[in-house]
Amino acid sequence: MAEKLLDDRSTITTRVMKSLSRLRAHGHGDILSVRRADGVAPIVVALADDCVGDVNARVTEVGGCANVIFAERDGFMVWSWDVDGLESIDTIDVHHDSTMGMLRIWLAQNPETVASFNVLASAAHAEELAYQF
């Protein structure tokens, strides 16, 4: 099962990278808004079954801020993801075991309501996470 997931992630990551290259080559510009000081645009590819807490940890591993690309069957969405983002008045709590698919559905149903959210490991501990579209 783990090998299948790695194969799926590898295939999807390759598809995303090729799509980003095609978009840029066809004059759509750079859709990756998060850049480090050295000009690198860190990318974390997220699948629907990935836990939000795991994605948050992967963003932390690449420096705490990244372009999170949520891969769907017929395309992808790019979210700016900052683990140290500022909390807004429209903050919601998301449990770290929630899947990215669950988060995607909620965000699609509430597109204008949230500017940031907390990834909760437990009731006593929250990691701040901000995103923007």
Terminal Cα separation, in Å? 33 Å
Strand content: 25-35%
Question: How are the strands ordered across the major sheet?
Answer: 1-2-3-6-5-4
Number of strands: 6
Name the shape in a single word. Answer: globular
Q: Let me know the average pLDDT.
A: 77
The count of helical stretches stands at 3
- Low-pLDDT stretches are 122-133
Major sheet summary line: 6 strands, mixed
If you compute it from the alpha carbons, what radius of gyration comes out, rounded to the nearest whole angstrom? 15 Å
SS-based class: alpha/beta
The arrangement of helices and strands along the chain is HEHEEEHEE
Range of helix content:
25-40%
What this model shows, in words?
The protein is α/β, with parallel strands linked by helices and 133 residues long. The chain has helices at 2-25, 52-61, 100-109, and strands spanning 43-46, 65-72, 75-82, 92-95, 116-122, 125-132. It has a 6-stranded mixed sheet with strand order 1-2-3-6-5-4, sandwiched between helices. The N and C termini lie far apart (33 Å).
Question: In a few lines, what is going on in this structure?
Answer:
The chain has about 130 residues and is an alpha/beta fold.
List the helices and strands and how they pair.
Blueprint: H1 2-25, E1 43-46, H2 52-61, E2 65-72, E3 75-82, E4 92-95, H3 100-109, E5 116-122, E6 125-132
Parallel strand pairs: 1-2, 4-5
Antiparallel strand pairs: 2-3, 3-6, 5-6
